[in-house]
Structure formats: C-alpha cells, structure tokens
Amino acid sequence: MTRRLTVTWSRQLGRSDAVDYDRFVDGAAGGHASQTRAWGALTTATRPLAARYVIVREMARIVGTALVLRPRAIGPLVAPVARVERGPVCERVADVAHVLDAIVGASRRHGVARLQVMPYWADGEAADAEAALARARFRSVQELDGAHVATLRIDIGGKSDEQILAGKDRETLRRKLRQAEKAGATVRRGERRDMPTLAKLHDDLMHGQSMDAKPAAWFDALWDDVARDGERGAVFVCEHDGEAIAALFASRHGSQGTFVLGATTSAARSFSKMVLPMMAAIRWSRDAGCARFDMGGVPMDGDTDEKRAAIAQFKFDFAKARVRLVREHARWF
After folding, report:
1. 63 FRET partner, CA 20 to 30 A, in 36, 88, 141, 191?
2. Can you tell me the distance from the alpha carbon of 223 to that of 225, in angstroms, rounded to the nearest whole number?
3. Spatial separation of the C-alpha atoms in residues 300 and 65, rounded to whole Å
4. Strand pairing of 81-84 and 114-117?
5. What string of pLDDT tens digits covers the 333 residues of the chain?
6. From the CB of residue 279, how many other CB atoms can be counted at a distance below 10 Å?
7. d(CA 309, CA 304)
8. Rounded distance, CA 65 to CA 57, Å?
C-alpha cells in the first residue's frame, strides 16, 4: 500500500519546523551528528555548499529528515547534484525506502539530477538499509578512500574506568595509559584558544598523507557552531614538557560519542601521544550519558593503503570487533 507522505524542503526552517527537525534528528535511531543543523552551519561556513533541510511527514508525524548539500555554481545557482551525509535520518529501517522515494520526488522538483545518500545504520540494520536502497534504485558508489563504512565501538554506558578498561583485549591500552602518565603527559579539556593547535596538527597530518587539509576557518566554525556550548562536541589536548603534542575533537549525538578527528606532533615520544586525549573523550561521552563510543572508522576490507592502516591500528587497542555501516549509494534521475 502506498504511503501518503508530504515533504518540507527549505533553505531555512521556520521556528516550529526547526524544533521538530532538531528533536527528530537528536532522538531517531538512525540519527547522526552530521545531519544536525549545527553541523550544517559548520559545513556551509567553509565550503561552497548550499544546505537544504528536508522533513518527511506521514500525516503530522515525522518519519524522516535530511540535510541535503548542493555545490554552489555561480552566485545563487546550485549544481544539479546533491549529497546527504550519513542520512537521510529515520527512526526505523522499515521507513528508509519510503522516505527515500519522497526525497527523490522532492529532489527532482528542485532540479536535482543525482542524489547521493548514506543512511546511518549498523550491522544487520545496515544490511536491511542497503536492501531498501536497492529497492529505491540506488547503487553503491563506495570507494576505499571515501567515508568510512566500518568502525569500532566501545560500550561505556554506566561503566567505571576500570570496567571500560577491563579484559585481556585491552591490556595494551592499559599499558599505554600508564606509560603516558608515568612520562608526565597530561590531558585537559580544550578551549577556543586551542583550535589553532588542533588545526595545525591536523594540517600537518593531512599533508603527510598527501591529502587536502581543512582551512583554519573550518576549525573556527567547528568551535562556534558545534563545540562552544560543550553539548554537541568537545576538544581535548595532550601536553608534555610544556608542548601540545596531540589534540582531538569528539562529537556527541544521542546515545553515542564519536571520535571525529585528531592528530599528534611528528616529534618522537616514548609513549603514545593520542591515548590520553582519546580516553578523555571516552570519559566525557560516558559522563554525558552516552551508551557507546565510536572510534570514528577503520579501513574497509580490501583496503591496502598502509597509511590508513597505520592510523587505524591505534584504534584497535580500544576495541577489536568491526561494526559494519551502510555504504555510500547514489542514483541518477
């Protein structure tokens, strides 16, 4: 039976729709931080993208939302392609195909010829979501260096540090934490003044991998739009011998904290430079009421890139079991 869905497609949501959008994205099982309006403000502040906010309703009930990003062409004109990063958002996997159909129809009416999506579901629900994508005539366009489709997660809800770190599989992690603390390394919550440090460390990391770095303005917007109030994100800085040797940003969305990005200095140390800020991010997420912490992705099966593998290896000290996510899919109309 065909479901009667209505679509709101807007450059700027009215007050009531904005409240409804935020509440749904924050609470939905398939929600993700990159689908929030705060992240939309960050993304469009430093990239030539236009954001459109989409709400799909069945009667008065919201069944899906999407932050649709379109490249700007000339002036107010936008390109006929669009992308939904880690979305659209649905409360149930069973709604994905119906919500996609509604968004496809609205996309056509607004001049979109190609739509790329990546709903945020894990393991068995990821397989169900990909089946729904196939029914909606989307096909996988996933690339090895694209958005990650495998990750690692740690159960942290209501657990003490000892419980989080317990077990033989975290023996190496416990040792690295002791080494860093014994060497005199410390970690603290970052402030606005620390954003240039995070930007510089991340810039050096990207250049070392022959990848494009984010502009300094992106890190300014990250603080202003996402991290300022401490509710949606936090920065952590590790210092040793009077020098900032590592920094990271972690987000919080719903019941999940997530490592988003971080980097260390190239100067050698006798201990792991990132282990203390990562553990601090895990504690922050737990204390904020999160049930799990996501390590921010690891290379997918078949990825032989040595640099990506080396960076990800550190994450396996925290968790071992891979979690499957939905691959990027696209459809031409």
Report:
1. 141
2. 6
3. 27
4. parallel
5. 568 999 999 999 999 999 999 999 999 999 999 999 999 999 998 889 999 999 999 999 999 999 999 998 776 778 899 999 999 999 999 999 999 999 999 999 999 999 999 999 999 999 999 999 999 999 999 999 899 999 999 999 999 999 999 999 999 999 999 999 999 999 999 999 999 999 999 999 888 777 788 998 999 999 999 999 889 999 999 999 999 999 999 999 999 999 999 999 999 999 999 999 999 999 999 999 999 999 999 998 888 888 788 888 999 999 999 999 999 999 999
6. 20
7. 7
8. 9
Helix, coil or strand: residue 27: helix
Cα 323 to Cα 123: distance, rounded to the nearest angstrom: 6
What gap in Å lies between CA 41 and CA 64, rounded to an integer? 20
* CB contact at 8 A, 165 and 283: no
Half-sphere exposure of 74 (CA within 13 A, CB side): 0
Q: Which backbone phi and psi does 31 adopt, to 5 degrees?
A: -80, 160
Give me the sign of the Cα torsion angle 71, 73, 75, 80: negative
Residue 260 near residue 293, CB atoms below 8 Å: no
The 8-class DSSP code of residue 297 comes to -
- Distances in Å between the Cα of 328 and the Cα atoms of 39, 92, 116 are 19, 19, 7
Please tell me whether residue 50 adopts helix, strand or coil conformation.
strand
Amino acid at 252: R
Q: Which of 261, 208, 269, 207 is nearest to 236 (CA)?
A: 261
Q: Residues 236, 242, 244, 245: what is their CA dihedral angle, to the nearest 10 degrees?
A: -110
What is the Cβ-side half-sphere exposure of residue 105, based on CA atoms within 13 angstroms? 12
CA 55 remoteness from chain centre: 21
Residue 140 one-letter amino acid: S
DSSP state of 302: T
Could you give the CA distance from residue 238 to residue 191 in angstroms, rounded to a whole number? Answer: 13
Q: How many CB atoms lie within 10 A of CB 191?
A: 11
